[in-house]
Amino acid sequence: MSALENTQASPVGARDLRRGGVRALYAGNPGSVVQRGLIAARSSSWVVVLSGFFEPVLYLASMGIGLGALIGDVQTSTGMEIPYAAFIAPALLAVSAMNGAIYDSTWNVFFKMNYAKLYEGMLATSLGPLDVALGEIMYALLRGLLYASGFMVIMQVFGLNLAWTAILALPAVLLIAFGFAAVGMAVTSYMKVFQQMDLINFVLLPMFLFSATFYPITVYPEWVQAIVVAFPLWHGVELIRGLTTGAIGPMMLVHVAYFVVMIGIGLVFATKRLRHLFLD
Question: For 65-92, what is each residue's pLDDT tens digit?
Answer without folding.
Answer: 788 888 888 988 888 899 999 999 999 9
